[in-house]
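Model it.
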Amino acid sequence: MPAKIFIPFSAIQEHNNVLVVDSYHPRGFVLSHWRGAPKLPGLHDDTSTGIVLNAIKADVPQLHTHEYVTNNHFDVDGFLGIWSLMNPEQALEHECLLRKMALLGDFREMHLLSEEDHLALKLVCWINTVETKRFYAPFASYAPRQSEVKLSVPKYKHFLQEFGNVLENPEAYHKDWLKEYEQVLKDFEVLQSSKSILTLEKSIRLLIVETPEPLHYYALFGQSAPADVVMSIYSNNRYELEYKYTSWVDTAYRPSYPRLDLQQLARQLNQLEEGPYLWGADKITDTGPILRLQGKALTKEERFDHPCNRPVYSSSIPVRKFKSVVCQFFEEAYRTLSKKTSWTWPELKAINEQLFSCEHDLTLGSLKHRKGKLPSA
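Modeled.
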């Protein structure tokens, strides 16, 4: 396979032979799990890195005819896909490791059962630390007057140069990954202890995590592979509910229900809430919508950061009632729907409009009496 050259996403119009990783552009050959992106028959995967590795192993013809690679943002999955195309032999040598890193980076899922699992965590922590210290934290570039397309280019240049060295000798770079790695281990131990309870509501793909204090995402979501939504329950009636990134992309191996507008659930909770704050939620198109009591307004950067780094406010709603309201919300909505691996944005819009567009706020149980059929699933 000919050597690849990384170019900024903004330069894609200047070339006809560009591999577009973990994003989308009509001029490029797309290797991406983004919702609506073209899929390679038999080679689609849950992560974009997985798609790239599948394409390399299948020796897809476009890998020989396309000289350039690009992405419109920097994250672990996108970077590993780019790096793999530029270092295909080394990528296949570490295929399983790279797949684990991509799952951890995008979906925050992990196992800590083997040395390779721990190495994947160390390497992702290295990327996180260097990215934030040397450049900027994820989504900081989404602030006003900033451009992720432009600002991510120096990140790619740096990590494409350095990652191979770290991969071959990770212990030499321990000062950059040790702090976060140890925090994840500590928080993961809390989840494994008697202090925490994990309950999977399999029928609605919801994981309920009950633990004393907010944790690092890699610990909190680490065991969430069977779920697309995570309910976090902390001491003193502190709650958050979050859609995972798995529900924003087109997966290959994990059929899911369509995303629901959590702002509708917030309305129901506000009918019950007697505390000083109101429930609110991010839009359905957000990469990871969070439903939470709204005190201090959070930026996208702060919402992407770990729960242990943001305030989570106490609710007047008892734990049992909160669980019941949330579970019934999903159960009622999903009652006439089926799971699948790929939902389009128009489908999601139509489903939510039919579920929630009415003269009055949707109340629990009202779905049973609504007329008409939902879009086929």
